[in-house]
Design brief:
This protein has about 500 residues and is of the alpha+beta class. The protein is built from 19 helices and 16 strands.
Length: about 500
């Protein structure tokens, strides 16, 4: 870890506070890949697509150009039978005792931490061979757990800099960190924590520019363990949410369209349970060739997270307009996954006709819809036009929402018709907010110049958050703060 105070000390080497020549080159492949939010070839309407729509058969053209109103009856597609591969919920015995630390260790197992110690010690030896001057003794499993406990403590108790946690003689002094380990020891571990072996990193770096090069090599050993644990110890309920999450890292590079204030953003694609925010699975985006198919980033990201053999079938998947496309939804329906999400009118294969559609002058609560097989596209006038499509719901089943409107200089609540897909989307996409809120409450995000260390901290967040959700599902007798307090005490060896 290289915080602002560390950058000013003589013990901070060039490796800790800047990128080596190898890593400067590696950044071109691994970091600067967010110039565009979506694949233009997949997600925008091309001239070829427009020509195709003009040349389509008359019957299909008539069907796609006919918007219907809420007074027209729509029938939902055949209900998909919910057949989960396992009983939804925690895959742990309620008869066993489950402490916060035992649940956290489901994700950061002792064998995984032992491997972390081995690679961290190897990285420290490599740094010493290069002439680094700080004192180092090999880190043990128990000590690395204590280090993780301090990282989570700092996420819970906020201070302006790392050194403040060890500052003495101040009204704001904190006695706890010094009882766990010294400041210098904490910093040297932060600088050297490594998820892969440095020698293996070197071999992988030689393959840069070839198909054999693995851009996620430095994080993959721990990432694979955590992903397997996320899926092994909890099975999601029927409503799932696909979303993206960004992890920012400081880098001495030129600012690009997806970098602000020299913060390079890593994109995680997250699959979570809408009911509680549990992270079921995730993937890390490393560029346009990250996924095996070429149907566009949004399509491939969703498909990479939905494994029917692991999950089962009959799930309802909610997503925002970045992912939604007719091709994705119809393919998911063929795999027995229902889907619902907002969409962008300009994307391929969505209705483009203006005949009988909504306009700016449409009254609030107006609804228009088009059905094409299992897929229904709905437009609803709220304060502005809302576009949602679904393979789960009928267009309108009588749902209503209340909105405040101004009449005769006073605000009054008035009821308006609301499409079923909009109602369900608003209800279940709240799982995204819940997951992000839980992560941000006690996020272990220190300043560091190494991208893989930043992702290591995010892995800690995922593990602690999922452990809390498991504890809540099994016992439900602790608040988030109480859970973190007990977890930190156990990790740090407090009796």
């Amino acid at each position: 870890m290289a915080d602002e105070e560390a950058l000013q000390t003589t013990t901070d080497s060039e490796e800790e506070c800047s990128f080596s020549s190898e890593e400067e080159e590696e950044l071109d492949d691994e970091l600067l890949h967010f110039e565009e939010r979506f694949d233009a070839a997949e997600d925008t309407v091309s001239n070829e697509c427009k020509n195709d729509s003009e040349q389509m058969p008359a019957a299909k053209r008539a069907r796609t150009l006919s918007w219907k109103a809420e007074t027209d009856v729509d029938r939902a597609p055949q209900t998909l039978r919910f057949l989960p591969a396992r009983e939804p919920g925690p895959q742990l015995s309620t008869a066993d005792a489950h402490s916060p630390m035992s649940l956290f260790k489901l994700f950061f197992t002792e064998s995984a931490v032992e491997n972390l110690c081995h690679n961290t010690n190897a990285q420290a030896a490599r740094a010493a061979a290069k002439g680094r001057k700080y004192k180092w003794t090999d880190v043990s499993v128990d000590e690395l757990y204590r280090y993780i406990g301090l990282v989570l403590y700092m996420a819970t108790v906020k201070m302006s800099s790392i050194t403040d946690y060890w500052r003495q003689g101040s009204p704001f002094s904190l006695p706890f960190p010094a009882t766990v380990m010294s400041r210098d020891r904490y910093r040297t571990i932060s600088w050297n924590v490594h998820m892969s072996h440095p020698d293996a990193d070197k071999e992988n770096d030689k393959k840069r520019g070839t198909a054999q090069h693995d851009r996620l090599f430095r994080i993959k050993p721990l990432m694979n363990i955590i992903r397997l644990a996320c899926k092994a110890f909890y099975h999601p309920r029927i409503n799932l949410v696909v979303n993206e999450r960004s992890v920012a890292c400081r880098a001495k590079r030129e600012v690009t369209p997806y970098m602000k204030a020299k913060l390079t953003k890593f994109k995680f694609f997250i699959l979570s349970d809408s009911s509680n925010g549990y992270t079921v699975d995730f993937s890390v985006y490393t560029g346009k060739n990250s996924f095996p198919t070429d149907r566009g980033l949004s399509y491939d990201a969703v498909m990479s997270l939905l494994d029917r053999k692991v999950l089962g079938s009959g799930y309802h998947v909610y997503m925002d307009d970045f992912y939604t496309s007719p091709k994705l939804f119809t393919d998911l329906f063929a795999l027995k996954f229902g889907a619902c999400g907002t969409y962008r009118d300009q994307r391929k294969d969505f209705p483009k006709t203006a005949a009988n559609s909504l306009s700016r002058s449409s009254s609030r609560g107006s609804i228009r819809w088009i059905r094409d097989g299992p897929l229904v596209c709905v437009k609803w006038m709220d304060t502005q036009v809302v576009s949602v499509c679904s393979t789960v719901h009928a267009a309108y089943t009588g749902d209503r929402v209340k909105r405040k409107i101004k009449a005769q200089h006073t605000w009054k609540a008035k009821s308006f018709p609301c499409p079923s897909p909009v109602t369900a989307y608003n209800q279940h996409m709240g799982g995204v907010d819940l997951s992000d809120q839980l992560l941000q409450c006690y996020a272990a995000q220190h300043k560091t110049m190494k991208w893989y260390r930043k992702i290591f901290l995010h892995f800690l967040d995922i593990a602690a958050n999922n452990a809390f959700i498991l504890h809540k599902e099994l016992l439900g007798n602790m608040t988030h703060y109480q859970f973190m307090e007990e977890l930190i005490a156990e990790l740090c060896g407090v009796p």
